[in-house]
Amino acid sequence: MGIDNTDRTLASNRLVFEVRRDMAAYRRFRENFELVMGEYGLTEEEKEAWRTLDLKKLGDLGVHPYFLPQISRLFHGGGYNHNRSEACKAYAASVLAGPAGDQ
Amino acid sequence: MGEIVLTIALAHAPGLTGWLDQAPQDQQQRLRDGYQEMGRIVRAAKPDTIIGLANDHILNFQFDNPPNFCIGTADIWHGPAPWFKDWLNVPDYTVKGNRDLAHTLVREGDRAGVRFAYSDSLLFDDNWSVPLFYLTPDHDVPLVPIHMNCILPPLPTPAECFRVGEVIAEIVRTRRPARERIILMATGGLSHDPGGPAYFNVDEAFDRWFLSLLEEGNPQRVLKEATIERMKQAGDGGTSELLAWIAAMGAVGGRRARTICYEPAVELRCGMGGVVWEMA
Questions:
Q1: Peptide bond preceding B101 in cis form (omega within 30 of 0)
Q2: B195–chain A nearest CA distance, Å
């Protein structure tokens, strides 16, 4: 993992890029992300990582690290994003295998 | 000839507006004081336009053909982009651009050997929303935003970024109207690692070392020692936003930076603070 491991051609990267730019696309993603993943052509390995919010796996596959907390926020919301927020806790549980702030 | 009346560089992390109350009380106060002091310095310089340099958080630079530098050429900008509103917790704002200045930078950049992409439709996130909230809260100073690639390797080298700052300064000096007053503002850094293993850490030793380098007024030493690798060691996912600071440094010659504030703000997940180079 790391910014040097980014795969610019990975479908998941284009998905994150686009849903953050367009609230209609974001709402559609929230309503049916299985459908959206299919439309973007994610591999089954990518889809399974999204379903289980396995951010570490997505990073290993080549999702840009900057996107990983944003993926957590796509599901858990971005407001009041402090270290004990749901979005941060989900990130920490997946990537760091422990609670935020313990590292 | 135009004039760069002030150069400033400051961290823009979203916690400063989004969840500052989570930081220790004394640190909150020092951060508010420091950022408000930077705002006073900016407004006292009476700028006609701010030229900004900041990381594009892969919000505008598409994966198929990302530039390293893109100048915002619109007449008017709106922020924050909708998806980022609750995260940033700042009021919606509108700020004028400066199309004439932006076009001058693009055109004269080509002639100086620096290729800038340009765009009328950049989305703004924390890169501009957080600094402007503190520096120009009335959003009454036009902004020419220059988005940079600081986090999608291969990155522009520190020397390339420094050269961009030199060219911007030269264009302002030689291709702009007399008495035009410009502030060069870099935003980003300091140590942080969004999405990486050090997401909840701050590398205070690196940050204080980097600030002390800027205070020496020796750009060649900065270019030699503040390498991308060194930045990545201090936070792989975000510390290289300091390339924007190095670009700004290209405009200041051998002037020494003055640190206005610094806080290792673990609750904000970022080394926070800023410096100014007084240009008089």
A1: no
A2: 5
